[in-house]
Amino acid sequence: MKINTPPILLTSCVIVSDHSVSLADADSRIKFTLESISKWLSISPELRLVVCDGSNYDFSDLVRAKFPNAHIECLHFQNTIERVKKQGKGFGEGEIVNYAIQHSIYLNDAECFAKCTAKLWVENFFDCLKGWDGEMRCKGYFANVFSLRKTLFSYVDTRFYLANKSFYLEHFASAHTHVGGEKGLSLEDCFRDVIITERMGKILFNIAPVICGVGGGTGTYYKNNLRRKLKEALRILLVRRNKSFSHLFA
What we know:
- The protein is α/β, with parallel strands linked by helices.
- The protein is about 35% helix and about 20% strand.
- It is built from nine helices and eight strands.
- It has a six-stranded mixed β-sheet. The protein has a two-stranded antiparallel ribbon with strand order 5-8.
- α3 crosses α4 (about 90-105).
């Protein structure tokens, strides 16, 4: 493991309360979460992982049996079910991150952490760490980049990001409370709104994280072929050259 590698928080919800997601089967969600743990450990067996489940499912026994030599902490609690049902999975995601920050030993011992949705892993994780100043890094998605229409900052990809704990708690810890509502905002919308409203800069990745695994919303594996990777790299290059958005990049 490289020096000062932050612990990785894997946000899990085995028993879903937001039934709009396609992957609702608990056994499948457990299987894919264990797969993601295995993939993270293949990136580096010395990584510190925190699996935090918001449906009160305890991964401890499974993790001990499958990964006896790994540095893995398992947390579990019950999300506020009625609010997740009303506002969606993004609300539950925010609760999980906040719970982990408050209760994880690994996160308590670290100034910064990486967050990744369970069932996923980031193939180029260490490349994403390069040049990080320890504050916040996330991926923004921009619409109309390849068209003649005006480019728009559509949302933040909240599946994976790097964050300083203090910075996160000050700026993003309550973002999930605005999910849903009259505008039907997603957590991705809320993160974008924080960045715009607080006029943040140097917060977006200069490279696209290569996120692999199964999406809970779709229930299928993400496709990361060469064509897609090249398109993502070109998208970022063009947006970075756009004077309206260049300040957002490191």
